[in-house]
Design brief:
By secondary structure, this protein is mainly α. The protein has two domains: 340 residues, no CATH class; 113 residues, D-Maltodextrin-Binding Protein, domain 2 (3-Layer(aba) Sandwich). Helices cover 59% and strands 4% of the residues. Strands 2-1-3-5-4 form a five-stranded mixed β-sheet. Strand 1, helix 24 and strand 2 form a beta-alpha-beta unit. It is globular and about 80 Å long. The protein starts with a helix and ends with a strand. 52% of the residues are buried.
Length: 545
């Protein structure tokens, strides 16, 4: 078996084991991961099953990839209640990213020991391990970005249309995983155009404009198609092309309701730089060294990696500085593959690349004079301790707001009664209340369509129930009519959350603003359920009059 297969399956197994330990063993499930599971489950098991139930606020790849596993939740509901289907999705994707890092080293002709060292440093970085096993979209996004990076690096030498098309296809898939890929798609398109124009020298630039336009279209078209097709389908079905910005469930609304965006541009830029350094501690040294060596060697491959990965970091910085996103460490994950690739590229290029069909401007890469021992040793020395730096930073509430509760998993303490430790315990308990609420409602053996709720917070209830058709949810085509006249449609209960913060976007609250407090003259309070999770609402179950 080839080393890459061992590497892929070994990393997949590692991320699966770690992911199952965190989710099933410790109950540590991130809300975004569980919401994608809920979307996938509604495709199969809602009262109105259809593919569009997957939703259009977020890009679809993460949920689509889970559909086969979610289908099995009909027999094993624990697959969705603990986000196991998300783990089954993210583990092989992240393993794929690891394989691409290894192949970049192999394409470069790096010493075998350096390839394995850098690959291991990347694969075992705590952020990679955590996001390889938690069901979030970062795994699929990184896999596509690393694939695009490798293919664009190869194209710089081979001018092979197959490499160019593969890079474009990977970027298109990356957009279907995360919107951030749009920045990379634009940057790569401009880069490819400029490289093709200048390949044969400044004097011949005009003759190269048409080939450059063709290359730019080939690499940029998949991302453009992914953007326009996804927006068009969203508009045709929902009437909104960009729900991420215009929908009451979108990121813009979430920011407005939670106050998570930055209002200080200078602070935002400094914070983004700190996040990038936490994930890529060696970058301040690697970037100037790699740039100097690339200039000396006339090596365009180094710039290709920077264009793909640094464009995403730049977009994350810009988005946070403009108050368009949250201060989450995961948004800067591309610093990790950037650090790994630059470390590999300190070594001079080795033997010629194996190519399918060399383009008119391709060339057989000649081995650079001089032994690679010194740059290889330097590369290894710069990156070998970086996982420890990232791991320590992940325990900081300031730098790592979504991960710092891992301290109570990795370093549990039954005697620590500090406020921070209690907060961490509540984070680990997130969605435990929703699972209990789902069990309570399942035990009532209610008929189909008996419980009306929105999935703003209710997604965790929906993933945990063994009777999903009991619930009327927004993806059901008759949701609005049922919401307007619940009693006439046989609804017995309404699940309500406080009409504040994220609860303001809850459809039940928007239709009945006083329901949570008074019952809005349509229901009486049946049950109140305090929540054990951090920043999770106290639920109220109302019986419809």
């Amino acid at each position: 078996m080839r080393p890459t297969r061992w590497l892929f399956w070994g990393c997949t197994a590692l991320y699966l084991v770690v992911g199952l330990y965190f989710t099933v063993g410790q109950g540590f499930v991130l809300g975004d991961a569980l919401s994608r599971v809920s979307a996938a489950r509604s495709v199969w098991f809602s009262r109105d099953p259809h593919l569009a139930a997957i939703g259009f606020v977020f890009t679809p790849l993460t949920a689509l990839a889970q559909l086969p596993a979610v289908l099995l939740s009909h027999w094993w509901p624990g697959l969705t209640s603990w986000a196991v289907t998300g783990v089954l999705m993210s583990a092989p994707f992240m393993a794929g990213a690891v394989v691409q890092i290894y192949k970049i080293g192999a394409d470069r002709g790096c010493p075998v020991w350096l390839m394995w060292t850098v690959t291991a440093v990347f694969a075992l970085n705590p952020m990679i391990v955590f996001y390889g096993g938690n069901g979030m979209s970062e795994a699929s996004f990184l896999a596509m970005m690393c694939w695009a990076t490798r293919r664009l690096i190869r194209w710089c030498t081979t001018d092979d249309i197959h490499d160019l098309l593969a890079a474009g296809f990977a970027l298109g898939l990356a957009y279907l995983a995360r919107y951030d890929a749009l920045a990379a798609g634009l940057a790569v398109t401009v880069f490819v155009f400029a490289v093709t124009v200048l390949r044969r020298g400044w004097r011949n630039r005009r003759a190269q404009v048409r080939p450059a336009l063709l290359d730019a279209v080939l690499v940029g078209l998949p991302t453009a198609m992914a953007f326009f097709v996804w927006a068009t389908v969203s508009w045709l079905i929902t009437g909104q092309a960009l729900q991420q910005f215009s929908s009451t469930y979108g990121n813009a609304s979430i920011l407005a309701q939670s106050g998570g965006g930055s209002t200080d541009t200078v602070y935002a830029v400094l914070f983004s730089a700190a996040e990038s350094l936490v994930l890529g501690p060696a970058l301040p040294l690697l970037v100037p060294i790699a740039a100097a060596l690339a200039w000396r060697r006339r090596d365009l491959e180094t710039l290709a990696a920077v264009v793909v990965l640094a464009s995403v970091l730049g977009f994350a910085t810009y988005s946070y500085a403009r108050g368009m996103t949250f201060p989450f460490l995961r948004f800067y994950l591309c610093a990790l593959p950037l650090m790994a690739v630059l470390a590999l590229q300190l070594v001079p290029a080795g033997d010629p690349l194996v190519e399918r069909r060399r383009g008119p401007s391709g060339f057989a890469r000649a081995r650079f004079a001089g032994a690679p021992t010194v740059p290889a040793a330097l590369a290894a020395a710069l990156v070998v301790l970086t996982p420890a730096v990232t791991g320590a930073s992940m325990l900081s509430p300031t730098l790592s707001s979504q991960q710092y509760a891992l301290r109570s998993v990795v370093f549990p303490s039954s005697t620590d009664t500090s406020d921070r430790r209690e907060t961490e315990r509540r984070i680990l308990a997130s969605f435990s209340t929703e699972r209990e609420l789902a069990r309570y409602l399942d035990a009532l053996a209610l008929p189909e369509g008996s419980v009306l709720m929105d999935t703003v917070y209710g997604f965790a209830v929906y993933t945990a129930t063994e009777r999903p058709r009991t619930f009327v949810i927004p993806s059901d085509q008759d949701f609005t009519s049922v919401l307007n006249r619940p009693a006439e449609h046989g609804v017995q209960f309404l699940l309500a959350v406080p009409n504040s913060g994220r609860g303001e976007s809850d459809a039940v609250n928007r239709r009945y603003p006083t329901l949570y407090e008074t019952g809005a003259d349509i229901a009486t309070l049946e049950l109140e359920v305090p929540n054990d999770g951090q920043d999770q609402p106290t639920w109220r179950l109302y019986r419809v009059l």
